[in-house]
UniProtKB/TrEMBL annotation:
Protein name: Uncharacterized protein
GO molecular function ontology, one term from the record: zinc ion binding
Keywords, comma-separated and alphabetical: Metal-binding, Nucleus, Zinc, Zinc-finger
Subcellular location(s) per record: Nucleus
Keyword Zinc: yes
GO CC, any one term: nucleus
TM ranges: none
Length: 643
């Protein structure tokens, strides 16, 4: 009793007249016999009893210890540890098994909602008898009123969404800077409904001053009507108004990242027109060409598509003629220099009707379950290949599939060769020609047999696309901002492809490389429409002005261009510096109403040697409040760039 007594409780009980009158002066004590007290402790308070006994140096009473713990201790004393049925480990610490928490209908509703939303389950699952039986099995005491229904789950999802949008709007209202967006449209499978997704991105400032990168889903909505720029812009502004980025009285809208379809630029122009009409921005403050950013992963994909299109378009004519001229009695296959091997790989692996091959029926390696089973069996004959795999199907909407098709096909060249050798006996000819007024002609699988030089050509093509595929995956490997990587990535990819376009080893693909490079360069030139790419480079600690100086040139290169009579020479380092000084971010960040004009040259650098990032904001805020040209935000910026 002395061990478990809470003296503060006893004192409060004895000093409270109401408690004394109703329960007596010993209300804070347990009243009962010792045996009853010990049984009570063993059943309900052993953990606390054991802790306080150890703290006070008092031996635990045998009758106050639960039976299961006594049995475990006796088993340890008898040396039964490790024997069957004995206590394995005790570790000198007795832990009470955590009992299940009390049943909470709202918690159940929350979990079911997550199951429905995250697993893409129908709302009607709440009314399903089998699902209800699961809930009743987990808690037999469940009554009908506690079971969920379609309407309750639907209402909870709706209310949760409303709460989410309310919090999102509040967070965006506190954002100190602009809010950028990322949007895209696509078609839902099966239903073919056009859907629009919108992501908002901004920098949030925590109470301790820490900057935090935030990205949240602002919309995922069905689109009605055409997909022209006017209609998409109307939807886009509607979603921006709903989450608080824009309104009738203000606009926090920054830059907008979209894919490179022309209707996306038109939609940004529609947003610009409507914001100007509202009077919240001017044409000089919001320029659609400057605010619209290209998705650079999509730019790379367009380059891959043009590369593959050049290969396949040339192969289409050659393949058609080779098919019609094929003589089954001749040895060899259809290739023999007349047919591109990449077209052969695509024909063998992609489940589609290749109309350019001029046949009405096509069987490929992955055309049916039977074909796949045979192909998997041939793979299992080569244990070094690991588990049986399917070959990715190449199409223009699935990024990375072109490289996947070629790379996996090269790895599985032996199973593919075996399949082609045995497919005629198992499945018949790969296709049948039916010329008008003439007899049908069967084209056997053996006509598409690849030899060692053909597989080397597949590997070369895969190496070309691998360059683009590696850069394309940069955005998928991190949730951190990657805007600073756009210029280096596009330049490095173009450099790699230019080197291969001059290499005789890749001569069969030179024309395709030139077409892919033309597409990459087309969108690379469009980077000049906005300054954010250069700003992102300069403000990234890894690049700063060093990348521009080393890759584009500085004063020395500018002087050389002038001496050589170059038209419109540019000092890129000075150009990048001027772009940075034009930005109005720093005055807005620290609440300074104005700052020295960008064309005002600062005097000598201040004597302060404070250039560490940790002190940057603190020193910058003080300098901006002073707003002196010789000790203002431009000086701080130059400290950073020169460090």
């Amino acid at each position: 009793m002395r061990v478990l007594t809470d003296h503060s409780l006893v004192k409060e009980s004895r000093d409270d007249p109401e408690v004394v009158q109703t329960k007596g002066r010993c209300a804070g004590f347990y009243k009962g016999g010792n045996s009853s007290l010990r049984s009570h402790i063993a059943s309900f308070h052993y953990k606390e009893y054991s802790r306080k006994c150890k703290k006070a140096g008092i031996e635990e009473n045998h009758h106050a210890i639960p039976d299961d713990i006594k049995e475990a201790r006796e088993a340890v004393e008898k040396g039964s540890v490790g024997q069957k049925g004995g206590q394995r480990t005790l570790d000198g610490v007795v832990k009470k098994v955590q009992r299940p928490t009390a049943f909470c209908p709202m918690e159940l509703l929350q979990r079911v909602m997550q199951h429905v939303v995250c697993c893409d389950e129908p709302l009607a699952v709440a009314d399903a008898v089998t699902f209800r039986n699961v809930l009743i099995t987990m808690r037999p005491k469940t009554v009908k009123s506690e079971l969920l229904t379609y309407s309750t789950v639907r209402s909870h999802i709706t209310n949760t969404f409303v709460d989410y949008m309310t919090r999102l709007k509040e967070d965006i209202s506190r954002a100190p800077g602009a809010v950028n967006t990322m949007g895209d449209t696509w078609t839902a499978p099966h239903t073919s409904d056009p859907m629009f997704g919108l992501l908002v991105v901004w920098i949030d400032i925590q109470p301790d001053g820490t900057w935090v990168y935030r990205d949240e889903v602002a919309a995922f909505h069905k689109i009605l009507g055409d997909h022209g720029g006017a209609n998409l812009g109307r939807y886009l502004l509607l979603f921006l108004d709903r989450c608080g980025v824009t309104s009738r009285a203000h606009s926090k809208l920054g830059h907008m990242t979209n894919d490179n379809a022309s209707n996306n630029l038109s939609s940004v122009k529609e947003v610009q027109r409507r914001l100007i009409k509202r009077g919240v921005v001017t044409r000089g403050e919001f320029n659609a060409n400057e605010r619209n950013l290209s998705c650079f992963r999509h730019v790379i994909q367009l380059g891959i598509e043009d590369f593959m299109e050049e290969i396949m378009s040339k192969a289409a004519v050659a393949t058609k003629q080779a098919i019609w001229d094929y003589d089954p009695e001749d040895e060899g296959n259809l290739i023999n220099g007349a047919l591109d091997v990449i077209a052969i790989i695509r024909t063998l692996t992609v489940k589609r009707r290749a109309d350019h091959l001029a046949y009405s029926r096509c069987i490929c390696i992955q055309a049916s379950g039977q074909c796949k089973q045979v192909f998997w069996c041939f793979q299992l004959e080569h244990p070094q290949l690991g588990n049986a795999r399917n070959i990715p199907l190449h199409n223009n909407t699935c990024w990375g599939c072109a490289h996947g098709m070629l790379d996996v096909s090269f790895e599985l060249q032996d199973p593919i060769t075996l399949f082609v050798e045995h497919a005629d006996a198992k499945f018949g000819p790969i296709t049948t020609l039916r010329p008008k007024g003439g007899p049908t002609r069967d084209i056997p699988w053996s006509a598409f047999k690849l030899k060692k030089p053909d597989w080397i050509r597949v590997r070369l093509c895969a190496e070309i696309i691998e360059d683009a595929n590696d850069y394309q995956q940069i955005c998928s490997s991190t949730r951190s901002p990657t805007l600073h990587q756009v210029i280096p990535v596009l330049e490095n990819l173009a450099t790699r492809w230019e080197v291969k376009a001059k290499n005789t080893k890749f001569e069969p693909f030179h024309d395709a490389l030139e077409k892919g490079l033309a597409k990459i360069n087309k969108y690379y030139k469009k980077l000049d429409n906005t300054d954010v790419y250069i700003l992102a480079l300069l403000l990234h600690p890894y690049y700063k002005p060093d990348y521009i100086e080393s890759e584009w040139g500085s004063q020395a290169e500018y002087d050389a261009d002038v001496a050589a009579g170059e038209l419109n020479p540019i000092n890129w380092t000075a150009h990048a510096q001027s772009i940075t000084e034009k930005a109005h971010y720093w005055p807005l960040r620290f609440g300074c109403p104005s700052a020295p004009a960008a064309n005002d040259e600062p005097n000598a650098v201040s004597g302060s040697n404070n250039t560490r990032v940790d002190d940057y904001d603190r020193a910058g805020a003080a300098h901006l409040r002073n707003a002196h040209a010789e000790d203002g935000w431009k000086t701080e910026l130059r400290h950073y760039l020169d460090d």
